[in-house]
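WARN  no MSA supplied for this record, continuing single-sequence
INFO  ligand: adenosine-5'-triphosphate
INFO  echoing inputs
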Amino acid sequence: MEKDSVLMEKIISLAKRRGFIYQGSDIYGGLAGTWDYGHLGVALKNNIKGLWWKKFVDDRRDMYGIDAAILMHPGVWKASGHVDTFTDPLVECTKCKKRFRADQLEKAGICDSCGAPTGEARNFNMMFQTQVGAVEDSSATVYLRPETAQGMFVNFKNVVDSFHPKLPFGTAQIGKAFRNEITPRDFIFRVREFEQMEIEYFIRENDWEKQFEYWKDEMIEWMDIVGIDQSKVHELEVEKEDLAHYSRRTVDFEFDFPFGRKELYGLAYRTNFDLNIHKLEYVDEENASKMTPHVIEPSFGLDRTVLAVLLSAYNEEEKEEDTRVFLKLKPSVAPVICAVSPLLKNKPELVGKAEEIFGTLKKEFGRVMWDDNGNIGKRYRRQDEIGTPWCIVIDFDTLTDNTVTIRDRDTGSQIRLKDSELVGYIKDKLN
Ligand code: ATP
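INFO  complex generated
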């Protein structure tokens, strides 16, 4: 693979230049660990979220959506153990005073920045605190949720009362989570504000091994759906001593990021820990007795998904004149499905016809871009760089026979189609 930092710089620069992702609060010098998604980044994220919701909620009969509040009662986080144990080991350099996560130092006990020894590690709680209401004492302290999971557990009874689901069934949520990471780094990989897509799947205890395998396969299938390069994905069986306090088995899906092999997703068997601590029960219809379901939790970071998708899609092709950069995004994921261009922008008859075709496609697909800037070659390159699968050009032949050229991003090959066939052609490819 290409030298790692170079590839990351290319991705970050493309993301900024082309309107995918910007540094948060950039004009004020930036705020570490925050990133703002621009027009194309939002589209990419929305497409990923939509596909996730379709696969895991809409296409199933046993899944219930939740969109819980980010601010939750502090009792939730006391019960879940986050107030006491959601910590990372913090060390400070004895010389330059920079702070690091002890387990992320390149050399244990040595400052990454100046090489001096670091001090003793202490536990640093990663939850962001804020105050609710007009009082400023500790009774008003609440936390921004560090995971979406608890928002689903505390709604367990509501879901059961509203929908009377039979085991096994699940809840699904997409939403923001906040962690005061000691050292946010690696672009959108480790940030302080991010989005998670999580499922809590409630099961009978004796089904847990079967369900764990089932969800592992579902997660692998998901990665294929969004176009994550499976050859870069590795399953890591988390060692007993490294398991979170609630977990009896965890498998991390790691991805070969340019900065190392790191966690992309996690799959955990949380036993009945969460429902127990919140004192929640379920009446089992099989024998009309009360029980506490167990939980399998597939957890997906959305921002890490975006990064893995971009890295999997990034391609360079050496041409005689220069290098062609293209994002080989799946059409269902690509921010723009197709771009429409009149061959020449100063010929009203071409522009008029192109506008008409643009209008039809825009109405059908939404994510359609108008592009009449520079010559056709430059337009193709611009669309390649943002991963647009098809470019449609209206030329003088269109005016006589209603055919247009449609160019394929990956092969660069072009065919001519009747303008009336365009919608069908693209729909076919999308499915
Ligand atoms: P790490 O070990 O990398 O800090 P974690 O094990 O704490 O991650 P989980 O608590 O399992 O992560 O969170 C579930 C998912 O949320 C992760 O698999 C990841 O995709 C995402 N995630 C967690 N922390 C961050 C973060 N700081 N920035 C972006 N995504 C994150």
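The chain is about 30% helix and 30% strand.
INFO  checksum written, moving to next record
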